Amino acid sequence: MAARTRTNAIARTRPVAAPAPVRDFTGAAPRFSVEWDARPAYDFLFSLAPDAGSTDDLPSEDRSWLQQARTDLEAQQPAAAAFVREGPAIHLGGFLVNHPDVHTSSEVVAALRDADPRDVIRSTMSEHLMGKPEVARLLDEALDGDPGAAGSLRATLEHDMHGGRLAFLDDPSAWLGGTVDILDHWVAPFAEIEGRVAAIQVRDVDRRAADRESLTGSDLIERTTGGVRMVPDPSVTRVILAPSYFSRPYNYLLAGEGWRFAGYPVADAALDLDPLSPPASVLRLHRALGDPTRLRILKLLADRDRYGTELAEILELSKPTITHHLTQLRVAGLVTAVESGSTIYYHLRRDRLDEGTGDLRAFLAN
Description:
- The protein is of the alpha/beta class.
- The protein has helices at residues 40-46, 60-76, 80-86, 88-91, 93-97, 105-114, 117-124, 126-129, 133-143, 147-157, 172-207, 209-214, 217-225, 280-289, 292-303, 308-315, 319-331, 351-365, and strands spanning 33-36, 228-230, 238-244, 252-256, 259-265, 306-307, 335-340, 343-348.
- Helix 2 (60-76) runs antiparallel to helix 11 and helix 6 (105-114) runs antiparallel to helix 11.
């Protein structure tokens, strides 16, 4: 699963009874370790994601900087517009997971320039290769230049990946070279804020020390991501939590063999904000509650946990619409997205309503 927190495929069909969500209350200890990975290299990539700077969770000065810097980048590198629109920068995060020694923007470019195109491509495709030997075989044959395998791979993945994500099939070396050229031009503007971003990441991790002492496993992940809960999976041995400034307010989720990754949004407390600025958490909460469709979703979740597909069918909403509403509810802290295997269901966080009132009172009192 990549970029935000997504639901499974959703179709507008006749309502059907959804299977009851399965939740493990056996008390079995989680089998995975939780790792913290604060590196500006991630935000170097995530700052070129389509969603970056799309909400006021990024302070206005940096939203303006990002918009102007990306406009300048596209003027220098016309291919950068499609690169940002298609979003491959997010998926290059998997390359960084496999290269823990790469910390800065310039080191990202150097590492990619020296890398085998096959290794880079496999890292961006990791979530689509897990437990799918046939897809892995097609990818290897396509990278060897087999046009038939490339065509079969496109057909196999057409519902999961838009065409731009598969552009590497035309010429892997040229694809990587073009990617490196774009990122190389992005190093200079990003360097203007890289030190500040790195400091924000470190502050966020430091401020979560109490959580690390009191919480473990899925509880720690849910608290850190603000509502993404991972059910223990025997195949997953590592969960990497990477603080991100430019992902705010979303979680960028990636997966590979044996690991899961969350580029989670740094907390408001890690930022240097004007004391008169209302907390983003308060704005997100009241924005989420100000929509009648989202209130209907909350009413349905008050009855029981539900899959995104089920909610879409009951409310007769399209996949993009239900995804948008569920994302807004999750980033407001009103619902938890529970990942169980390859599916996601949603759980109402009743305590968030009381917490939100407390956040508003605390802001007004200080």
